[in-house]
Design a protein that fits this description.
The complex is a heterodimer of chains A (about 150) and B (about 575). Chain A is mainly alpha-helical and about 150 residues long. Chain A has helices at about 1-15, 40-45, 55-65, 70-80, 110-120, 130-140; strands spanning about 85-90, 100-105, 105-110, 125. Chain B has 12 helices and 23 strands. In chain B, helix 7 (about 115-125) packs across helix 8 and helix 8 packs parallel to helix 11 (about 320-330). Classes of the chains: A mainly alpha (about 150), B alpha+beta (about 575). Chains A and B meet through helix 1, helix 2, helix 3, helix 4 and strand 2 of A and helix 2, strand 1, helix 4, strand 2 and helix 5 of B. Strand 4 of chain A pairs antiparallel with strand 1 (about 40) of chain B, so a sheet runs across the interface.
Amino acid sequence: MRRIIAIFLLIVLAGCRDSDKEMPVTSIPSSRSGPSTTSTDFLANNQVINVPPGNREAAAALVAHALDSGTSVASVREILTRAGVRIVNGDGVTLNVPATPSKIGITIYDFQVPMLAESLRAGSTVGLARVTDLAQELYGVSNSPKRS
Amino acid sequence: MRSWMSSAPTEPENPEAFDAALLQELANVLPKDQAARRIHLLSFLVLGADLYGPKGTFRSNSRASAFGDALGMRAAHAATPCPEEKYDPWDGARLKTGKTLADWIFDKFGDKWSQGKEVWKAGGKANKALDIVDILDSTLARAALVAGLKVEVTNDADGKELHLRHSSGGPDMQPVTFTAKVRFETPWPGATVQCGPLKGYTIPDNSAVSGVWVEWGLLGGHLETLDRRSSEQLKRGGGGGGATNGEGKAEFRAETVPEKFCPNNRGEKVDEAKCGRGKLKRASSGAEAQLDLTKTPPIKFKDLLMGPNPTWAAGKALFKIVTDVATDIATSARSARIEVSVAWHDGGVTVWEGKITVIYEHETADRRTKFERGGGNAKDITTNVSESSRTEDFVEVVLPPAPPLEGTTRAMARVVHRYKHRDEYIRNQEMAVWCRAPGQNGRWRATGVSDSSLMDENGEATQWLPVFVNVDGTTGKYSINARYPAVITKWREERKNAPAGGCENPPPSSDIDEGETSPMSEAYTQSGSTEISGQVDPKDSDTLSGERVTGDLEYGRTTEKWNLRRVEPTY
């Protein structure tokens, strides 16, 4: 019984570590660790990226890697992680340790990471006005009297 | 946001500075013409979450799960269909202790959201706040999904160069068919998402997307639509275009336009002598496909993004924003446009483009000093006189690459004629004058006298005038004759005088004269012409350039500079 309590405490402690103190790097659990099927494209095990310290330097290096087909998936995965975006697999298991403060209101699936990487390399863009459109649309929905 | 972007570099250690640096770097890799009004999809997602979503500290249960798994145990949450990931919004760097999520949203949206605020107050702040987060999450997840929508335009020219036509139709027509193929691609096709914002959504297969409305645009100006049906495919205000077929394809047919001077249906001037003649020119032209995903039916795009039986009830209204993002993404991809090589004869017409300047300068300067012993009431007089003048008569002729005047070989040029003149005279005298004040003995008093005169005259005229460039093909000699307009000048002369008196100098005096075109400028300000001659450089017969200086500043120096290039006119 004591052993079970000790293990439980270890689990709780692992889950509650102060992520402020951690380097915000992508942490990908082994596919055996969860009940899910994680996209192999997302894992991109052959892609190695070097990221210099400092936000500006890191952003510059990551964007350059993101435009390189040989490192783009790993780079976009790291960008999302450093931006505090949670990446999940189809079963909802979180595959990274998003930087703090983490973003609430955005979840990216593992299979979307290679898609975003390819979109970046394809030069696809969105009108800046869509960002303000989003506010208007959110406002419209939020005016509904009852939560659905 | 601007403040956030600009302050981020000053706080490089602030964790939130990464987003600002990222957005800046992503903007830097956009083409310059897009950087101010478009952003990458990745930027949209990060910015959308930054602006409209709260932030907090993420407590990962799955990390606990991984830890438990490593110990050979199954974490408790693994047994449930979806692990509940925990955020603590009160622990985020941006949130003050005790502030609720709803308060944060109210702070964020300000007065603009006051109406919503009232509704939220009435309906329950917390639920509404959570609605926003859920809806944002669902919207951004679907926005990320549209990265899988691809448009690729191909053509059947097979790399062959298409020649512009020499007739309004007939055998030399060179049609080309552009095909847009719309498809959806994902590394995880057909799977059903069990958890998260896309819960219940079945990812489409990697397949063609039919029923998407494609509008076409022509690029480069050397192609036109082949027929009426093609013309109807062109994007027009409020109309034009067609839907992709079952294979996700939409076709658009075009052909090369007629060459300049050749028979055409446009009502443009035909010159048979020039049609199909001259140097061969090459360029690119092409077509681009733009999607309009708002067209319904037969578009099934809604099913593509939301699934046939959407459970995303609260977010249905946000389908518009996702559709708009998808339209932007698919249309802006480099693969949504393609170019073909085109060639044409320039009709043998060339014009001279460039600039000619002719400047005449004349300067005089004189300084002299004289000493006089004097006598009577003034003695020991030292006189310093300084006189100077500068005259500048400037003509500039700028020839644009415009076609010659109808029916002539004359080119029109913008000619500037400018005249400047300054005349300056200064005389200073130092002396001793005899002073005898009432009731006092007489004495010599040191004093000075000065006279000066400054005259300025300026004027400028601009006119479009013909320029004649004649090149003798046999001898290689050339002459350039350019006319210039007359100038009306304005002059102003200011004279000052400070005389000397016996015991006290009287007050100085000054006067000003003004007028138009002084007699001494008349020789320069009239209209006239200038002629430059030279020898063509056989190694570069398309350039006429040189510089010639005659005379000197004392007696008048003329500097002529010319640099003309033979170019194809810009019509």
